[in-house]
Amino acid sequence: YDDFLMQRADDAHCTLALVKPDVAQDEQAVATIIGRITARGYTIKDRVEITLSRAQASAFYAEHSDRPFFEGLVAFMSSGPTVALLLEGDDVVRGWRMMVGPTSPATARQQMPQSIRALLGDDGPRNAVHGSDSAESAQRELGFFFHPRIQAEVEEEPPTPAETAV
Ligand code: UDP
Question: What atom in ligand 1 is closest to the CA of residue 124?
């Protein structure tokens, strides 16, 4: 993947889509999401299903580590399977974010009722899907899910004090 990601991810032609644990086990919902992606003309180049560890979820959302919702987000993201999709297509970083809709499903239902979060999201962290917010984020996040070496490094991280204190 090194060459593939280096060549493609910085030109906005590839992005990461996640179907989060609130929806990933709902086969009909996953089919709806995939149907929308392909109907929009994007290609699904790769797919993995993974239940993130707390360390992996924390690493993926590290930029939010000092936000009040971080603990709830990490608990949710490690609560069950996530489906990760490598999307390819013209302007797909921006296009997939448009399909996803606003962060809050309640806001999505008001402002973008056709968006995936309006249709399938709940509230708090349970907003059904994720999309990389820039080509740079896409490159990093695709590596996180589709580059085996990066996966292994995150898995080897020692547990945080919060995890060992249970
Ligand atoms: N989130 C949350 N509460 C908030 C803001 C965000 O639980 O007030 C969760 C939600 O699942 C969101 C994720 O944290 O998708 C990452 O937040 P970000 O601001 O990056 O939103 P996104 O890019 O996913 O729309």
Answer: 7
Centroid of ligand 1 to alpha carbon of 112 (angstroms): 17
DSSP states of 102-153: -SSHHHHHHH-TTSHHHHH--STT--SEEE-SSHHHHHHHHHHHH-HHHHHH
Q: Is the CB of 38 under 6 A from ligand 1?
A: no
Q: Report the complex ipTM.
A: 0.99
* 107 within a domain of the structure (yes/no): no
Q: Which atom of ligand 1 is nearest to the CA of 126?
A: 11
pTM of the model: 0.88
Q: What are phi and psi of 147, to 5 degrees?
A: -110, 105
The pLDDT tens digits for 37-64 are 999 999 999 999 999 999 999 999 999 9
Structural domain of 57: 2-93+123-161
